[in-house]
UniProtKB/TrEMBL annotation:
CDD domains: gp6. InterPro entries: Phage_gp6-like_head-tail (IPR021146), Phage_HK97_gp6-like (IPR006450). This is Head-tail connector protein. Gene3D superfamilies: Phage gp6-like head-tail connector protein. NCBIfam families: put_DNA_pack. It comes from Mesosutterella porci. The lineage of its organism: Bacteria, Pseudomonadati, Pseudomonadota, Betaproteobacteria, Burkholderiales.
Length: 106
C-alpha cells in the first residue's frame, strides 16, 4: 500500500475492531480512508502530508492521539453500522467529534 495515506494503520483499526482475520481487510481500509477523508474535510487540511503545506503531520506515526482516536471511532461506527441509516454519521454530530476541535483550520 505505497499510496496509503490513512490517518491510522490497518493493524490499529483491526485491533480497535477486534478483527484478527484478513477476510475484511479491504473493507476496513475503505473505512479508514473514508474516515480520514472526513477528518481532513472537518479539519480543513491533510492529516498525513501528501501535498498540503498545512498538513497536520508527516507520517501516520505522528498523528496526534485525539485525531487517531477520532478516526478509529469513526471506522468502528462505519464497520458496526454498515447501513448509513443506522449510523450516527447520518444523524449529525457524534459525541466524539469534539476531539478534532483543536486541529481545525478556519
Amino acid at each position: 500500500m505505497s499510496d496509503y495515506f490513512g490517518a491510522v494503520t490497518l493493524d490499529a483499526a483491526k485491533k480497535q475492531l477486534r478483527v484478527d482475520y484478513a477476510d475484511e481487510d479491504e473493507l476496513i481500509v475503505t473505512y479508514i480512508m473514508a474516515a480520514t477523508a472526513q477528518c481532513e474535510q472537518i479539519c480543513g487540511r491533510e492529516i498525513v502530508k501528501r501535498s498540503d503545506e498545512n498538513a497536520l503531520c508527516d507520517s501516520v506515526d505522528d498523528v496526534p492521539e485525539a485525531v487517531r482516536t477520532w478516526v478509529l471511532l469513526t471506522v468502528t461506527d462505519l464497520y458496526e453500522h454498515r447501513g448509513a441509516s443506522e449510523s450516527s454519521i447520518a444523524t449529525g454530530r457524534r459525541f466524539y467529534d469534539h476531539l478534532l476541535d483543536g486541529y481545525r483550520i478556519f
